[in-house]
## 1
Amino acid sequence: MEDLSKKAKHGAAWLAVGQFVMPAWEFGVGIALARMLTPSDFGVVAMGMFFFSLAAAFSNFGIGSVIVQKKNLEKADIVTAQTMSSFLGILICSMFFLLSPLVSIFFKEPLAGKVLSLFSLNFVINGMTMVPASLLTKDMRFKTSTKINIAASFVYGASAILAAFFGLGLFSLVYAPILSALFKAVAICIAVPYLPKFGWNKAAAMGIAKFGGSLTFASILNYIARNVDFLIVGKFLGAESLGLYKRAYDLAVIPKEKVADTLSSVFFPFACETRNDKQWIKSSFLKLSKSIALACLPALVFAALSAEEIIRIVYGEKWLGAVHAFQFMAIGGIFYSVMVPCGSILIAYGRMKAYVAVQAFYAICLILAVFFGLNFDIEGVAVAVAIALILFMFINFFSIKQIIGVSVMEYLNNMKSSIIVSATILISLLAYNIMSTIKSDMCNLLLKIIIAVVIYVFYILTYDDAIFTDVKNIIKARCFRVMKV
């Protein structure tokens, strides 16, 4: 298990590099696009993206997870998976080309359908490369996948900014992902190396359908739960409100997507490989949960208490309508982030009924809450989503509690350091907000950053915690190397 732990740390380190470089680049790209385009442009694209992403949950059909999860992968499994993923990609792309006018009618927005029809080309691209991408993950080649993802991110950002600069408007948000997906597809096939080969094996297809079917149903439920608020806001409040709401959501989920999802993607193949050793899984789950909490909780607390300065400075006055929604979303994002590893455990252990039940519970809660919150504009929807995410975290934890034998007290004690750090930052920034008389948004934001960083560094240096100790040792080692040079 020691070799696996080292391999996991190595994989996490490489993914950490990617999640430092890509968010910084994508954040800069987002700022540029937000200043070049309008909230309505982003809202129209979000309308088309709703149905695109819903179909993406179906088109994957759990094929990637089947490849990673299966211990003895054979050639028949690979060629059958390639055939299924490619066929589904082409089928869904064709359907959306035909049905896209109905999307425009539903939202009463002529461009929404055109956006969807163009986005649907990604189904063909992703269907062809789903298998090699999954083989990279199964082989734990995180260094290679990180390099490819970083390069694809740069392709997306550069092409989006150039398209917006040359006046393509909202379509700069459409063409750029397609170019990025094409680049990534070619790079993955070269890296594996892999040339798509097609074939059919009934037994392999049945195995994929059995596991992938349950996973797909759960993914669809999860997608509906995560995106039904966009559908409802777009339908009843319009493109501009959806653009503001989507901006608030995208900012609030950055820690979850860039930290929690990344670390869990490293954890998942190791959990599949070592699921018989529940003690190792439990220990790794607790370490992973603590790492996610230490990274995400302080960041989201800071975001909630600095939302107005962040929006005004970064995106400009036209985006101020997103401030309160962003604050509520940041609170919900705390719970959204820490529950991510639970899903990896349920899938690794093949507990698909439990996984589906959890997603169904969340979807029902969210739909009911969002319809109620709609009465209070996008701020009410954001509050509804935050409440549903709190419930989602608890049901996720109790779904894996018996599998790995972790108690509530163990989990809470494991989170103690992150709670203390976040609470200290919360109290300090609340006091600053009350007492500060400075009018400059830039000065206020810089001072808040300094306060939060000082508090975080203080705890790293003084608090008795294994992860903080690891961080101190890494810093010392780096400093020693620099001094030797």
## 2
Amino acid sequence: MKCSGIELIDLGKEILDRGSNLRFRAHGGSMHPFVRDGDVLGITPVSEQKIRLGDVIFYHVGDRRMVAHRVIKKFTQNDKRVFVTKGDSNTGEGEKVHLEQVLGRVKAIERSKRKIHINEGSNRLIYIFYLRISPFLIKVRRIGGRLVRCIQGFKTYRNLAKRLIRGEIRYQWEPSQDSTKYFLVRRRDKIIGRTTINNFLKADSHYHGWWIFGTWVDWRYRGLGVGSRLTEVLCEFARKEEASDVKLLVFKDNKPALNLHGKLDFYQTRIVQIDKELREEAKKTGRQRIIMKRDLAN
């Protein structure tokens, strides 16, 4: 559930500062199962006093990443309010979010012509209960994740799975009217993977050039080459647009992602201004992201 773009952050802040509501489409699986990829989030302005444990808040990290994650803790530090947030499907201790980063609170989810009010009645009780048992579920998920990755590592499993779902997988571009291009992978009517590419044209931007953002693959379909296919298509698209290279950001502790992009000829690089932003981000979140680059020589 992340989105790149200074313009969108500024626009969202302006809308919410005026007291109006904002609708925003979620991308990714960090809030699964309560928020799903493709859900439309209804976001309302919120004051510090009204943010409660269990709320899903909408905030920005740096000037290019917007996130909707759940508040699992809040405290005061140096006379300033700090919230600790975490995606419902994420492991780890969460990330610190300062009040000035908060744009609003998610009030409702629109899904399949239904509207789910996540902070009201029985829905809120379910989320609070989930919050209480999440440490136990995280341990179970870690064990299950290791087991799944072990199974997905077997060549026999991968070959069998590919044969079983080969005719059900479709890759497609999602219609877009802006500079960001979305590439999806579906199994039947369900989105099981997504990635985006953006060409930042401003010469004075630290992110000048072609960047891949938000690559996500449903855990049940990892190890089947879906992530590789998504990335290769975007690299080929950028090559046809006469790009000399493509860059992306990846967490330094995300070994599967590092291995995947290494096999696709990406290597770590540095951009001084962005490195500074990423170090500041790591101080707040506890996780370091790095820049990786792939040259697109013909």
## 3
Amino acid sequence: MEDRRESYTTGATPPTNKSDLLKRFGDTALPEDRLEVGFDQYGRRIITQAGQTGAAYQRFLYVTPDGKNFSVLDYNGVVREVKKEFKNIEQLRTSLYRKGKLTEKDYVTKSDSGLSEAILEAANEQSKEIVDALTLDDNFEAKFTSMTNWLNTRPDYVGGEGPSQRGQEITKLDASQMIDAFTIDMLGREATPAEQKDFFERVSAEMKKAVVKRKTVGDKSVESGSFLDQEDYSRIMAETIKPAIRGTSLEAIASGTGAIAQSITTLKTYAANYGIRLSTQEALDEVVGGLQPGGSLTTGKLDQQQQKIKNMAKSFYTNLGDSIDNGVSIKNLANQFANIKSQMLEVPLESVDVFDKDVQTALRNNGKTGVMSTTEFDVLLRNKPEWGKTKNARDEAARYANDILKMFGAVG
């Protein structure tokens, strides 16, 4: 999801009931009105809407002060409307601070940017509650409340001040949607109930440890610790699905439609391009390695795995290291020799690939820098028994005999 602050608000007459809002999340909604539930780069559930370029932008469901209507607003729009609703900025700042949305540092320094971020955090949380009520609560309209009233219903932190220790929480619904999206992407299917439960328990346990602590040093507020980020979520989701990978037949995984199956094919093709035989099992092992912390598959890339194959090719073809570093494909070099062999020995071109014995001999070139010359390869092929059985050889022999006869005047 792109995080660009595109200017946008809905029309002057926003929908006011459950059925109207449901349409905004349905397939029948017009492209410019349709809303979806997505995730930001930190794995937090948000409301998104496609812009004119097709990119997804975050949106907020802002309820009017009377609690009757709502608008779909962008970042700037929701900050503007919430400030307008409260009128007294200091009252808004204090409310957000007491509810733990505004840090002590931003509260004390009266940071405008800090206030805006706190409003966005509160607005996103309220928007998620509206969506949950929309899909789960038959008495949906009763959940419609203004930002002022919504904040008033939130519990204050101890002492009526901002939190000295903040943590993360995740609902089972959020966790299920995250692991579903991940398994669909990786394995081409939704997560099983057992996987949903496992992921929720894993991420909840880590969230309890990932806290941000605050203390005041002199006249400054200092925070330590960090929350889980997208890399952490990817790592936990990868650990969750690994048992499914190990417990599924190799053929079933390789023939799937998810990113893992696609990555297996991609790696095998990449390896072949560099003259390396990579079995399906070996490719799968590399892919699973990409699901380890620091691996690259969870970001949709295979850079680390491909670099490993490239290094392997340089060790196999020590004479071609410079060519490989300069982006020359072993397969492209092999194709030149495959074409020569196909024509000379009169064999189907598709039967000669980079792993053909004669092609490999030409590529390795007895360890000498570079590949064989075409002349050397020609001599190599002519010394093979197969050469004598070809029409090319017979025609050449006939021409040679005819030249001899001409020399002795036996033919005109």
